[in-house]
Amino acid sequence: MNLLLTFALALLLQSPLQTTGKKTPINIQRISSDVTLDGIPDEPAWDEIHPFPMTVYQPVYGGEMSNRTVIKVAYDDEYLYVAGELYDSNPDGIVANTLYRDRYSGDETFAVILDSYNDNENAKWFFVTPTGVRVDQQVSNDSEGSNSFNRDWNTYWDAATEITDEGWFAEIRIPFSSLGFQELNDEVIMGLITYRWDASRSERHIFPDIAPEWSRGFTKPTQAQKVRFTGIEYQKPFYVTPYLLGGFSQSNFLNSDGNAYQIETDYVTETGLDIKYPITGNMNLDITLNTDFAQVEADEAQVNLSRTPLFFPEKRQFFQERSDIFDFNLGGNNALFYSRRIGLEQGQQVRILAGARLAGRTGKWDIGILNMQTDQLDDINLPSENFGIYRAKRNVINQNSHAGTMITNRLGGDGSYNVGAGFDLLYNFIGNHYLDLKTATTFDDRTDSDFIEQTLFRINLLKRTSRGFYYNFSALRSGELYLPEVGFNTRFDYSQFDLELAYGYFSPVDSPIRIINPSLKGSLILRNEDHSVETFLLEQPWEIELKNNTDIQFTASLWYEDIRLPLFFSDNAFVEPGNYTFWGVEAEYGMPGSRQLRAAISGRARTFYDGEQYSVKFSPAWNPSKHFELSADAELNYLHFPDRNQSEYLHLFRVRSIAALNTHLSLQVLSQYNHLDKQFGTNARFRYNFSEGHDFWIVYSELSNRDLNRITPTLPRFENRTMLVKYTYTFY
Predict the structure, then answer these.
(1) Of 425, 437, 410, nearest to 337 (Cα)?
(2) Residue 16 DSSP one-character state
(3) pTM score of the predicted model
């Protein structure tokens, strides 16, 4: 008890109550005349706007600016305008590596981050590069956690840039209808952060003045400046986007005799429709009919050397809008809702017949409703299914805390069902200290009723900061019958305890090091049935960030694994049941992204169960001009079990080439080779973007075999190939 009291007192003494940004709103000035979006903010309207006072955020907080930065924000009835005068004493050194939409290749950037709902948790992030490339993404969970940035989200907005002998200049124009907001007493309050990233000097100029107390402090909605708009006449644009799709797919199958392969060809002609309608300024309705995702980039291949399933991120656009509302994370990749359960099954695409999503904010409530109907898939005896996700959460206690609930259902046409229900509470109890409670229960037609065993419960206590001492402790119990068929769960019937203790040290002004982050991490996983240890991990990482934006990390680790079934990595490499203790070291080095030729490299050497593992990953990238980028990943893994005379190479090779004539016309080719499977995959996507919402796509994918004679009958040269042409046009 004395120890607990001492710990609580220490928390009280070391941290003042966390502020929710710069609380007193400042008035954004209304433009009184027209602005021509040409990249040069020289219209008379801009002369009336006062610039923001800028602060150097990095490499040295509060340091002297190498070049002058002038940022202004204004608005009219329909748009928010952001203008940047980004002076540079060496304009030839401006980093502008690419012309590819939504691609960031270490370029200089000019950005605005808007907490448009003023909820101190979520925001929309817009930035533009000197070549006019636009990038947009969503911020959630106050920028905390690895899943807090959604880079696959897109919306409607415009930007223009111009490079001169004085530096570069930019204008951003965002429709209020693309932001969503809440109006009260004829005024709208938002949170705003704006900055300039000078890549050649690794220098960030920011408004408002935010101290680097957090690893991503310059993106935190809680630290945004509150700004006020008045008299906004909200428009309700009605977006209707039909598509036309045509093409073919070919696959090789064994014939009925099983002695040769034969080709089957299917021709595809499809039409579909997406509708977006803003019911209010902060609530959107999306409807999709005969949904298609032909233009979505292929998943990057992964090597799995763990005992848990691989996780792949969602890239399909329909699931991106307000995805933060539907987030119900249960630690790591565990989640009550995982959107890739819809329309994908056992690696095959399942036709989505129709779907609807209602998402947004009303008062203090975030509301999300998603319902989708999929077709049956006879190849794997999958019935037609209905997926429903129902989410509600609201601010409680204070502006940095919320409570909510989620219900999920998966109803099969054959009478099968799986229903999930969850409750969560995030409580900012003092300073940067948070309590995060979550519980989820599933009900399934295949299992008996046992509430405790159908439930996952997690408690998480953490301090959100990157300066000084911070911690993260969590405890979780997942019951034997907890089966989230619309979610993601890495293990079953287990209890897990995780602890991280860390310290962030910002170096003196004259040091080449910006921050050093040593930490100690421990994880203990127990089987619920007998409380035996299944996994134990102890890690000691050292993370170092240099002021030139170089990243270095060293990690020493100690593992214990107890496996009761064989663990297979390939036919030639597996681990017998038993308990094993192994240890190792790894190191990572990442060069500054601003260089035209850059690379990241990492290596690991460790004992591995009753053998050894050696891994190297090398990721070079080269931008010979803004029109072309070539990048690669070579992941080399060697497993060796000398006592059992086993060894295996688990290598992956990936090459991505990107060509862009301008910001409208581009081609991206992703090629991957899996050494173990002896297969080569290619995904090529040609895009002509006439304008926002108006696109023409040509997509080609192929999975081919190498070493055709390794089995009998001889393998075909390709497993499958697809060629599709898609045209979309948005009416509004």
Answers:
(1) 410
(2) P
(3) 0.87
